[in-house]
Write a structure and sequence with these properties.
The protein has about 475 residues and is α/β, with parallel strands linked by helices. The protein contains 14 helices and 15 strands.
Length: about 475
């Protein structure tokens, strides 16, 4: 097959779909190679499709790795997959491309990994039951910067043990808050004096991007006068290229600078910060430390992997040890200032757009939740709260549909989900009285502990006001 011109993302132009009249494919000279038709991002136009033009003939050395990562970023790859006995894959606009002519050897993949981890120790680490999450910062010159979130894990491919590296490209600067299309109600409540703000959503829902945008917004405030510390696994967005005239920002990476989010949350309280950003509250101990920080004069932002306001509250309460659920609920309600849940859906223009469910914790909502003694009904009450006082995913989907931003099929997905949730709530409402009756019968056979005040999860919380 003869060589053909390539479109901007490297797809071979079909003979049935010629270039527009007067349009010519761009050309440039790749050092060490004969002149070939390439797109403006440097992809070789050939029958083999999108290919890395500087692929080494022997093996990838450290300079080759960096040249490849720069090229992958320039062709707008969102994700890069490198594994033994396989060609390198790029994901561009949801489509996968093999971009090397040959498969990489096992030793080559481990050398690739050691270079971006900046230590040979990664090889020994993956020899045991462990993986590695970290970031890689690449500066080919003083004017350009490329950043990647990296995961490395050992495994088997085609019956042979080896490793896989997944790199996700990250913009060098967080987006502006004005670019996030946030609801005005959220913006108005984005920076209370103290307390806890939760950003919830599934993996890949844009939680980290939203959180980084919020931190940038607060840091750029000329009247901010804040000390911001962040703990992330790994550090994705960095803030050294933004103007923060009266605010100090310091970022710490979990597993590189500190061993866990638990240690991070305890470390934060020793440093007198104004704002603490914790990448994820993933266990009971970390959540307890987050609550302590939020109730001792700090503003804390963190994320949880949940979908919706009711599920978020239920999941956090479920983290509490047996017998301490009421105390955990009280602490959460007193500390929370806002919960923002986010998911990404396909927009009509082919891009992804955020839908959000959120609740601002007003005194009325706090009082309503504090009066809740039957935790079996907590999810029902939270669903009522978000419908009456907040915004549901369905409500946001209806707004986006009316604005012509999403198709009816996307809206229907949320309508079906809302109906399913309503059925679940109805079933739970029917069962809850039986659960309560069963608990009452058992309480008659057990020592009476209901009259005792709830025990706080952490002694530091018991001394706090309110």
């Amino acid at each position: 097959m003869a060589k053909q011109p390539v479109d901007l993302l490297g797809a071979v132009a079909s003979a049935k779909e010629p270039l527009a009249p007067g349009t010519q494919p761009a050309h440039f000279t790749v050092p060490g190679m004969a002149k070939q038709p390439v797109n403006f991002l440097g992809a070789v136009a050939s029958a083999e499709g999108l290919l890395f033009p500087d692929e080494p003939t022997a093996r990838f050395t450290a300079p080759d790795v960096d040249r490849f990562l720069v090229w992958a970023s320039e062709v707008k790859a969102s994700d890069i997959t490198v594994q033994h006995n396989e060609q390198i894959f790029l994901e561009i606009a949801g489509r996968f491309h093999r971009v090397t002519r040959r498969a990489l050897s096992k030793s080559e993949v481990f050398d690739f990994m050691a270079h971006i981890f900046q230590s040979e120790s990664i090889k020994g680490r993956l020899s045991g039951p462990d993986d590695a999450d970290f970031s890689y910062d690449l500066r080919p010159d003083r004017d350009r910067r490329y950043r990647f979130r990296v995961n490395c894990v050992a495994g088997i491919s085609e019956g042979i043990s080896g490793a896989q590296i997944t790199l996700r490209t990250i913009p060098s600067k967080p987006p502006l808050l004005s670019e996030m299309a946030l609801e005005q109600t959220i913006i108005a409540n984005i920076a209370p004096r103290q307390g806890l703000i939760l950003i919830a959503g599934a993996t890949g829902s844009g939680k980290t991007t939203l959180l980084a945008s919020i931190i940038r917004h607060l840091a750029e405030d000329p009247e901010g006068h804040r000390k911001i510390i962040t703990f992330e696994s790994p550090i994705e967005y960095v803030f050294d290229e933004i103007n923060h005239p009266t605010t100090s920002i310091f970022q710490t990476e979990i597993d590189r600078n500190l061993p866990s989010f638990l240690r991070a949350s305890r470390n934060a309280l020793r440093r007198k910060p104004t704002i603490i950003m914790l990448g994820e509250a993933r266990d009971a101990e970390t959540m307890t430390e987050v609550l302590v920080a939020a109730m001792t004069g700090h503003l804390v932002y963190t994320t949880v992997h949940t979908n919706g306001f009711a599920e978020t509250i239920r999941r956090i309460v479920a983290l509490s040890p047996p017998g301490e659920a009421h105390a955990r609920t009280t602490d959460i309600v007193m500390a929370l200032r806002m919960v923002v849940c986010q998911t990404l859906v396909m927009a009509r223009d082919g891009r992804r757009i955020a839908l959000r469910e959120f609740v601002i914790m007003t005194p009325e909502i706090v009082e309503k939740l504090l009066r809740t003694q039957d935790l079996d009904r907590l999810s029902l009450i939270c669903k009522d709260i978000v419908e009456e006082h907040g915004q549901t995913f369905l409500a946001d989907a209806r707004i986006k549909f009316s604005e012509g931003k999403i198709d009816r099929s996307v809206l229907r997905t949320f309508e079906y989900a809302s109906q399913a949730n309503a059925l679940d709530a109805s079933a739970l409402a029917h069962v809850a009285p039986s659960i309560a009756k069963h608990s009452e019968d058992q309480s008659q056979e057990a020592p009476d502990t209901a009259a005792q005040p709830p025990v706080n999860l952490d002694p530091r919380l018991s001394s706090l006001p309110g």
